Records
---
Amino acid sequence: MRTLRMAKQALSAMVENKIRTFLMMLGVIIGVATLTIIASSVIGARAEVMGKVEKWGLDQIMILAGAGRKPGVPQPVPTTLRIEDGLAMMSEIQNVKDVSPQINRRDFPVKYGNKSSYGVLVAANPNWASVWSTPAETGRFLSEDDTGRLARVAVIGRTIQNDLFEGDDPVGKQILLGNNPFEIIGVLEPRGTAATGIDMDSRVVIPLSTGQKRVFNQDYIFMIKIVLHDPSKMSQTVDDVRAILRERHNLQSGVEDDFTIVTPTQVMNIAAKLSSTFSLFLILVSGISLIVGAIVIANIMFIAVNERRSEIGIRRAVGARKRDVLLQFLMEAVGVATIGGVLGIFLGLIGLEILSGFMKLPTAIMWQPMALALISAIIVGLAAGIQPAKKAASLDPIEALR
Amino acid sequence: MIEVKNLSKRFQKDSMDVRVLQDISLTIEKGEFVSIMAPSGMGKSTLLNILGCLDKATDGTYTLDGVPVHDMDDDELSAIRNQKIGFVFQSFHLLPRMTAWENVVLPLIYSDTDGNVKERAIEVLTSVGLADRVDHLPRELSGGQQQRVAIARALINKPRIILADEPTGNLDSTSGEEVMKIFRDLHAGGVTLIVVTHDMDVALQADRIIQMKDGMISSDRPTAVRSGEVAL
């Protein structure tokens, strides 16, 4: 009860000095608002990446030719990965539902009349559309017949369509891929930009057989995407795939793989690393704001203790113990910081609303960052209030009353 | 009953040993009305602060109602100030942003009394003639009214001792007389009253006048004799 009465006194002191109380809160408000905004957008961005990973397929594995474990580092083109490797997996591993071998070539010149552009040339089988969940939007996709007769047909992405045909229907038109004439048979559904920054709509898909024999003149391939029956047996299947490939490529034990297996887990790890960098930034920014907030509260509390010497003296004269005075001033500081924290959360939520509305930023409103923000605010209040409160409590009542 | 023996108070100032009180011994009975008179800076406020448990003596003993106060710690002294002693100051010392009744209940915050504190405040404010000023802020009250709020605050915990430091010093004579009337009523009700003053008219209303000089008691006598002398 005594504590409750003291809390009332602390609260009324806050209400009596509204402007001062607000100024004290300002640092905490800003700190907590930034913390709420950044935490929520980092979590939101992460959720978006995870969503993309899930869309990409939790039931899929990619096998890339070459041992390059670091994406983006240029390496000599390995020639060991073959279509037959994929077929072997299909027949020998029970959990493999589908395989899609393909050759990719970036920045491949595409021409129509006097217009030209550069796209990602993909040579693949008809099942590419379902494995990559990118069917044709208009026209049709590649067929087994196209593969069988090494047809010079292509399915293009939206970007290429816009570059060469300015939105006109391109189906039936002849384009040049390098120097090879191809007939457009369809346009792919738009897929936007991938997390890696590649425009997925600049892809041009041709039959794998045509690509090998007529364009690239190579019998090796660039990658195989595998779809699994049971994604929970992912690691077992990865082991099987590795074993088959090592055997087929005649790799002795101790020799490094000449291929790279990419699983959804690895992609998620990359995303997690990305968001932990953001988290560090978040902790820095809001940490600095909160420290500034604490300094402001401590300063104003010191001023308040000096201004209210006579109040402290009166309270001591009518029976307040040192710890009663300490508690009152500490509760004022903590109260100011806590209310500042709550206001900061509201301000942060408004900021998030604006960010997700105008800037199309992915955000996730969750209670954890808010609880964290509020707890930080309370700690700020305690840390900032303890010294001024001690000073108030140790004032000599006679001096204070003079 | 207040019993003080060989009390002295010293402190260091500019590496000089300043003696504010020297070897004070005195006894004040329950229900007595005592005035302490002295020129400024002669130690009367220090004595009052020690008697009121706000300050501690350097040497000597202080027994209050048979309990030795001189070796109590700060918490125990705070409890005595809260329960047994009421202070009245020259400059009232009200909290400016609180209403009359909120000022009056201030001591109750630090005691274990619950229940309707406002009702109790109104009761005490009524007894000092301020029933119609309960919700006023100090700045809306005259000096005399403010001092009566301060007296109500001193009385809220029903203390046995009231200590007043120049209670009429900032008041005009009419207000001062009102305050002294309240003191006489309290005295009649059995409260021990100790008033520090240098106003002879105020001092003469007490049973006994203690005069101090240079930190020592220079005279201690009942006023009846003195007024008798005047009568002669």
---
Amino acid sequence: MQSKSIAIIGATSAIAHGVAKLYATSNSRFALVARNAQNLEVVASDLRSRGASHVSTLLADLKDVTRHDEIVRYAMADLGRVDIVILAHGLLKDQTEIDHDAEATLDIFEVNATSMISLAHRFGCALEKQGSGSLVGLSSVAGERGRRAIYAYGAAKSAVTEFLSGMRGRYLPLGINVLTVKPGPVDTPMTAGRTLPLMASVDTVAKDIVKAIEQRKHVLYTPGIWRVIMAMMRAIPEALFQKMKI
Amino acid sequence: MDSSITSWGRYPKAVHVSSACPEWNSQLIDDLQRRDTILPYGLGRSYGDVCLNDGASLIRMHRYAHILLFDRTTGVLRAESGLSIAEMLSVTVPAGWFTPVTPGTKFVTLGGAVANDVHGKNHHKVGTFGRHVRAFELLRSDGTRHVCSLTQNSELFRATIGGMGLTGIITWVELQLTPIVSRMIEEQSIKARSLQEVVELTEAADTDWDYTVSWVDVMASGDSLGKGILLRGRFATTPDGTLQKPHPKPLLSIPVDGPQWLLSNPTIRVFNTVWYNKQIGREHQRMVDIEPFFYPLDAIGNWNRLYGKRGMLQYQCVVPMHDGVATMKSIIRELQRGSVASFLAVVKKFGNHESPGLMSFPQPGLTLTLDMPNSGRRLFNALDRCDEIVASVGGRVYAAKDARIRGDRFISMYQNYNDFVKFIDPRCSSSFWRRIHST
């Protein structure tokens, strides 16, 4: 694999780190953005140890959209040219925990949707100026149909998926690829303590993502079986869907 | 309540109240202080109950696995303790550095390697894993952190190496790696017709070969008791471009538990005979990759499931060199009297390099290791008699492989036991530790 220049937003997320590890071995260069200073420094050391030829870090609370311009400027200036932008930050809470909490519900939407869309939009413009690159957004299969168990998170991911789909249409003619990643449940700290069906490992998902980036795919379901499962789930009529209690 | 976590032998079982799975340093102290008693758990490759904490909690360390520093010119690596040797090698081998010591599987964490002070085929040259640890940090349940080395907090250093996870949580480990120029190992295998010959061949090989180990047939009797094959190896010394080659993937994985007859006395006997006779000439030579040389069983995922629901026991002891062959023969005869079925057992001569670890297992002498299907009372009685023989000659049994030794006997084998107990963290405990203090 060739060395790449990669900006990762939400760099301490397990999936983003999994992808970064794979690129680090081919001496890639990284600009990392995350909220927690200590954890971000650990991720930076890890990537350096694995062979990254350059790693710089910026601390930012990604919910704060007033800092998004600065984040984009920082990443573009630090790396010079950016081959890949990965938007990986996310927040998952138990739906039952927030069923009676409107603030928390909006919080989920702010982190997973508003902030993600704001950054996707701004990085899109920056890549347009550069005239090349890949934008990778981490969405989820949870965004394919509103389910009682996870609808706040699902609605936010749905917004991300549709936004990225539109962006892809706009940017494809300019030579910029937009990849929407839709993982099923992944065995990460975000899902710890939950028993979920067909749980995939971070390594499997990370490998799939790298392959999809390199092949300039548009939409990635990982593991692939989720493409089939979600197609079926979308096809169930609403009345029946409600009776199935899934 | 969780009964899904087992040791590699899958005996005994344990039910854990809770298990934390920290990813970041800041979570460790919460995980440690929020629970009654805990035990750090890596990848669960020790065999008996040294990695279990029945009725209490585990802190699962496998996600706490970042590399903090890797100096490609000096071969010094510092990593969080949940990093596996497998993942470490995927980074260090392409840069020309190998682990100084490796057990028979690469699926162990660095923390586990320290806590069990693991050894390998090169013990006669370089001693245990603990001898190559430059330093580590230990987090105690009172919230204090101690950087430990031979010169700094040396008492905690010595207690934690081989300390079975009882002295606190190892947060990071700094290792000195060994330089290599190739992934290939020059390997020779030599047939020996008896245990005496195995030992003679080993002693002759130990000067010039970095790695030596013998596989012996413990089900053979009479003159051929302990007949086997000596394997000796050393890394190729001329660069051949193999370092950058990617690791091969596991070939297959065992998805379900094997039926009880699968690995039983008759089938194992057949296997051993076939295995011994598949090498036709007396000597055989080849160049092999790191994987088949060091980690032949890692190619079969979950091979422990072949032993079925009742699980397996492993037994490893070391006896002094003086009268070593005779002692070992009496141990093997004891096992035969108990109709114990065992695949090829492993025999190795430990060298004189002393480990810093207070509770470290290896000592100079001959070591014997066997895997056995858990066949119940008869096996346990035979192993008790083996313990007796081992104890009578001043030998030891390895805690990381044990599921059944009598407590007083184990304690009598470890001369530093009284020094060690002073360093146990009040919040740390394990099934093993409680067992040897209740029998």
---
Amino acid sequence: MISKKEVQHIAKLARLDLSQAEIEKYRKELSAILDYIEKLKKLEVAEIQPTSHPLKVENVMREDRENEKLKIKNEKLMELAPETKNGYVKVKSILK
Amino acid sequence: MSLINLTITQAHEGLKKKEFSALELCQAYLDKIKEKNKEIFAFLTVTDDLALSQAKKIDDLIAGGGEIPLLAGIPGAIKDVILVKDLKCTAGSKILENYIAPYSATVIEKLKTQGAIFLGKTNLDEFAMGSSTENSAFGPTKNPHDLSRVPGGSSGGSAAAVAANLCNFALGSDTGGSIRQPASFCGVVGLKPTYGAVSRYGLIAFASSLDQIGPIAKTVEDAKIVFDIIKGKDELDSTSVESNVEPQTLNVKSLRIGIPKECFIKGIDSEVEKLIKAAIKKYENAGAKILEVSLPHNAYALPAYYIISPAEASANLARYDGIKYGYSAKGKDLMEVYSKSKGEGFGAEVRRRIMLGTYVLSSGYYDAYYLKAQKVRTLIKNDFEKVFEKVDVLMTPVSPTPAFKIGEKIDDPLTMYLSDIFTVSINLAGLPALSLPVGFAGKLPVGLQIIGRPFEENKIFAIAELFEKL
């Protein structure tokens, strides 16, 4: 069973705001799922290479140029931002 | 015969011969949606105006005597995780409730070029995470065969829409079974293509090394028509590749079908087992050779999947931080904006998987979980490569049970995950697999899963079509 402190730490890493009740709920649920995943412990895999991708493709290169066809109007993307100012996305100040 | 029952080829012939107009065909589906969508809730957005204006253009083309492509004027539905320019794309999430797609996915551009009609966007589990469509922030879709049951998920809206004749065909996406399992539960055909066969550009990412877009349709022929349009290498998705397009002539006498012995496990529904075995018997009677094979690491596929997919998801979903688009919560500082936007915007299952993914990737656990799962992925892939030296395709059930009741598994994530036990290994190995309706357990459809070698979709289609004739 993972601890409440661990759940809080993970939530912080994930930038997820959880209530006390949710922390308790996820503690139980994550523990159950992690117990199930423990099944993998039985397998000896020291000599096996990891697979991160189903196809054997590597370093797909392309020319570094603008694709006119793909150009999306700036305003269109800016309209999606929750807060903007003078054509920039506005965020809370980072430096105190 | 009513217009909404037609297959793609039948509808195409009818349009060409001017037996009916594209407008009439489109209106017939819109009427059906109006009648049925309230109870089934397959569609999140219905785009009447767009669909009718598209249909009008096709009619003008036909009136002008022009040749029309096979999909021209054929009304389809799009899972709401695939971007269609200027339409809302919610991913079934509150966090994208008001998000308007600024561009279209490559698959959408390809369908548009053909003149396909878009009826609307279909419901799904939030960010495609789930097996029942109950995780949609906008309410569950119902199974058209039994309204008290789930349509499967995550492409439940797309599968239910096809099954209830609310559209001719639909697009879904499949990360661990999300096309095949709902296709099985709803009694329609669904294909998860080989990884890389279809461009993922414009698909909202869940787990990028597993996600594929694929067709859901009434017949194998229709699924093949849609797949042939959407597949192909795309410069906007560097993981996409050109598939081998050789047509297949099937000689059933030389066909070798492998049945993994690990697949008729304890806990499989007896009706499902009976129907799957009867379907395999039909192939045997037609002359195919049935071989028992072994996938020794199959039991490890689900735990490996529930490490790899949440890990990738936790990285992919980090972008919904309330800054550039989507739901944004107020906070006293930037950190609080991030964590409140995500905490309030994401539903329970999405948060659960972000937590799980963050955990398995976190310092001190990476080797024990994520790296281990990637190694297990190699073993699973090797198992398939080995059996495919001996057989042409594999057959298994799509899911251990038919459609379950709404609410039955929603409070128990682990039991819910188990309904993907036969499908996740295919995504880990990147293989193509199709769900084919082979009968009913009571009134509930059951699907046979046909798994092929990479880029052998045509062989799968040929074998599946054979069943429809047996």
---
Amino acid sequence: MSDGPNSNSRRNFLRSSLVLISTATLAGEAPALLGSARAEETRRFLNESERRFLLAAVDRLIPADERWPGAAEAGVVNYIDLQMAGAWGGGEMLYRHGPFRKGTPTQGYQLEYTPAELFRRSMAAIHSHFSAQGKSFDQLPPAQKDAYLTNLEKGGIDLDGVPSNTFFDFLLKHTVEGFFSDPIYGGNKNKISWKMIGFPGAYSDYYDLIDKHGVELRREPMGIGDGAASHFMNAMRGGH
Amino acid sequence: MTRNHILRNTALALPFAGALLVSFSTAQSAATDSTQLGAQIVAQGTANGAIACARCHGFDGQADGSGAFPKLAGQFPQYLAKQLRAYASGTRQNALMEPIAKGLKDAEIDSVAQYYASLHPSTLPSRPVAAQLVARGEQLAKLGDLNLRVQACESCHGPNGQGEPPAVPYLAGQYSHYINFQIQMFRQGIRKSQQMQDPAHSLREPDIVAVAAYFERASRNGAK
Amino acid sequence: MPQTLKEVDVVVIGVGFAGSILAKELAATGLKVVGLERGHTRHSVPDFQAPAIHDELKYSVRKGMMQDVTREAMTFRNQHREVALPMRQWEAFLPGTGLGGCGVHWNGQAWRYQVADFIYKTHIEQRYGKKIVDPDLRIQDWGVTYQELEPYYDRFEYLLGVCGKAGNLNGKIEQGGNPLEAPRSREYPNPPMKEQYAGALFRKAATDLGYHPFLQPSANMTRPYTNPEGLTLNPCVYCGFCERYGCEHFAKASPQTVILPVLMKNPNFELRTESQVLRINLDSSGKKATGVNYMDAQGREFEQPASLVLLTAFALNDVRMLLLSGIGKPYDPVTEKGVVGRNYAYQTQSYVPAFLKEDIHLNSFMAAGASGTVIDDFSADNFDHSALGFIGGCYVLCGSTNARPIEFHPTPPGTPRWGRQWKEAVRRHYNHTAVFNLSGTSTASRWNYLDLDPTYRDAWGLPLLRMTFDFPENDLRMSRYVTNKASEIARRMGATTVVDEPRTGPFTTTTYQSTHNTGGAIIGSDPATSVVNRYCQTWDVPNVFVVGACNYPQNSSYNPTGTLGALIYWTADALKSRYLKNPGPLV
């Protein structure tokens, strides 16, 4: 039975549930929402200096504020570590036959590097740049970090074959992915980004709610890994 | 006659026996006025013909374990309120619940719903059943069945059947007898739901028993 | 040395909507049909089940259901004089693969074209004169009319269970539907979808401005539905994971839900997956196909002889297959001779983000693939272009198909791309921003075409398809006009910020726009300017039929699948009632 937008049940629904809060509290101290970030680092791909750089860089791209944690706390560095170590880093869904030529902007990515190669090259070049000055990115004050990142973003710097704006866009893209993707990928710890914006997550049946216009839906987001036997699904599919 | 049989065959439910006093904790920090009013109605009923809910559903929302009456503890308040209104209007047919729901005013419906929603359900031990039955239920719950063209129950009923608040009720820990009965009601078109209509129809009888058995034993908070 | 298999009556290349339906129709007459699908088999259970299917990273961002470019990509250039380079990653459009094809991961937006679209050249010239058509544009009539296709539109819509309200029933305008739609002979099989909040706000503003909003026709079910093949679909729950995803609920019309179970039961039909067709074989005359050669997953090559070959592998792949097989003369834009590859077109998309106040909770994540409220007042030739200096138009759609956060986190103009301000803007605007989607005509042009790349090859050593395309100036003028009109509606909705963002050139492969690639094997009355006749039969090789959006001489404002469905059943009819009785050219 579908109700019209002004039906009695809609008014009652609104009256009883204008703000729906589930059993878990959603607001609170930003750090408390996540527990300790460093405790569970993945170690598949990144070396120490890459990890240090990334922690500092993603922290500028999506910083923590008074209310909400940022990319560093959300585990985005773990996300990047796992992605670079996996099939994506290795070049899945990438046409890698030559010849390689520089193209027009509309022709998109034309470098011969896989994501992992692109990342490693760029990081090595950045590391050399800072080492040569006896510095490291993570030790710079915030304003200087931002200035450095902005400079990369502008382009014009060659990171051992990778234009710096290509690397910067790559870094930003992966940071956003790691911040907003399902926590099974290592980022978005405790679904913090979903809580921030109000996205309910992977479990989604809105048949009864879609025409209840204006209801402020706040519930604990639910992710793919929440069902205890997600291994059950993998087993049924033959493990992939 | 078993106690359950008597309950099902009489219009009057026996009062909930105090012998099984189960302590509960509220999930939210403090009882609201609405919840307190709800508690009162649950315990005493109303002057307008609403029998005390506790008589069948228990003051703790655990009902009597028979499965004739559903566990209400921790169910989503919007879902509970919607069902009460559906009983009152006749949209959902039930000879027992209809006069009760009609005997509740609008605000009382919300209060009763708030009260039961605030309770923490306990998991009572289940009767032993064949492991294959629960396994089949789990398969249907998490994967569905291609030949039957039935999707995974949990795609709507949430991880481990804990529901998708506010609209889709939890099944985890719900009495298997009750789940079985409701699917039969959907199957026969007595209880109407666009989303349940075809799945209820497509599941075979043993499958219904299986999913009911699985969900009764599912832990509401999941194993982490 | 390829192994030669036992001959069959029909080979179907690509088992998506077109392949499944044609295979089913022909197998039902008693013919032996083999369906060759390059991708994997997949079914609603277990492959599309939630929550695993609701994985934005895997399916939206990493293109989990799409053609594997490590093996088979395409090259691209904007201009004929440039060097085409590979599209090394999919972005602008996403060709699918696998059993069911795009029908698995489409949105379900189920439209018909307008009457005038099928006689576009005649109509435009009659209404406005030839001068309104820019010199490089190449619009053509189809050679088959809307009236002829109407019963087949109807058949496809009832197969899918399309949900909507008729606006024009046999010429009579009906309340609640689209008053501008082409006449239909009967009501939709199911009622329209529920209206989203953004759609309701749009409806009010559009009505105030004198337009005619209606609910978009949808192949996501609004109630349980049993189709004429006896298959039952469930109602959609507006989960917001439609395009790029399979549907866990059996609610989206796809080959898996509307026809494949019936097809698979017929012993006359054999499905072979992971079978990459390399070419259609011709006899020494070059006028008769003898079958196809394909390679299986182990790298073994087979020759499958057949009397009839149906090419239904998606528009771009169809054109490539014709070129690789030497069927039809390849098009040369310089001489304008040849036909295969000409009239490639696309969909001219634009967006109008409307940022609303923070107390308006749109909940755009509650969405079906084809939910949304739309106006047709500025589509196709539905409005008078006399004083405007362009042809074509867009429908204006407001609602959402999703609010998946990696893909959707709008921020107003002036917001930095990263940092504290960006994050705050994302938080502030995520659930309070409506985005209009304008879907526009794509006018064929002399210089937009498909051919084989001279340099780059696929994993089987065959040349990649090369795309030469940029938006014609006409289409950019059109986009500016309609986007501006749409922005007025957004302002009327009370948006605090409206972004009037028409499509601009050049066409870039780096951001998603649409997978409505059309043309390249176009339908027509004249073999000098078309590849197939009005029955989708190739002029050159009468026992090869090509059915796909590659048949479209130009693309109208509307999503192509509905019209393709009509062509599929129209062709099935021609095959069964005419071709099989007397194989040979039908025209």
